């Protein structure tokens, strides 16, 4: 055996499917293990409005997520809805309650398909994309989960203090 730090499953034909990194596993306050990348990928494939997502919930009672929007897709949706702000900047679009509600509707639908302890209770839409320059992405565009959590610690902590979503 080779210890790589990856987590995976074997399919019916014996092929290994890598689903996450062991160091990224979230262990809830109730002791449940959650593979965040699997859930994050489900949301990204469910909706064109999300470009990046980082789940958080280690040693917590519930999971939350930081999300970046797909500006082009959100602008198209806003224009189709007749919103005057459809041509706004990334920060302007991500600050709109209607955009938050749009993304939260997709999260709610995702939550119906996963275990209750895996569900995302609150989201926060970031006012900018994650980037290599900020140290939040690797050169191959993978999210540096610990860096993102550190950079947005105050937002994440507010979810657990009952403050809810700071984007509303």
Concise synopsis of the structure shown:
The chain is of the alpha+beta class.
Overview of this protein structure:
The structure is a single chain. This protein has helices spanning 36-46, 71-80, 90-94, 97-111, 145-151, 153-160, and strands at 6-10, 16-21, 26-27, 33-34, 50-56, 63-69, 120-125. The protein has 168 residues and is α+β, with helices and mostly antiparallel strands.
Secondary structure blueprint with pairings:
Elements: E1 6-10, E2 16-21, E3 26-27, E4 33-34, H1 36-46, E5 50-56, E6 63-69, H2 71-80, H3 90-94, H4 97-111, E7 120-125, H5 145-151, H6 153-160
Parallel strand pairs: 6-7
Antiparallel strand pairs: 1-2, 3-4, 5-6
């Amino acid at each position: 055996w080779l210890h790589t730090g990856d987590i995976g499953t074997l399919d019916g034909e014996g092929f290994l499917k890598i689903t996450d990194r062991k160091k990224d596993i979230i262990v809830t306050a109730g002791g449940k293990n959650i593979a965040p990348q699997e859930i994050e990928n489900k949301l990204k494939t469910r909706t064109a409005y999300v470009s990046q997502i980082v789940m958080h919930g280690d040693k917590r009672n519930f999971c939350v997520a930081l999300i970046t929007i797909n500006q082009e897709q959100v602008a198209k949706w806003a224009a189709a809805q007749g919103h005057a702000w459809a041509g706004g900047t990334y920060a302007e679009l991500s600050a709109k309650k209607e955009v938050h509600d749009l993304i939260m509707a997709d999260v709610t639908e995702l939550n119906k398909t996963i275990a209750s302890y895996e569900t995302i209770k609150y989201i926060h839409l970031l006012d900018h994309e994650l980037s290599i320059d900020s140290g939040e992405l690797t050169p191959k565009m993978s999210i540096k989960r610990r860096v993102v959590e550190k950079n947005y610690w105050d937002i994440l902590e507010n979810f657990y203090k009952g403050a809810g979503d700071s984007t509303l």
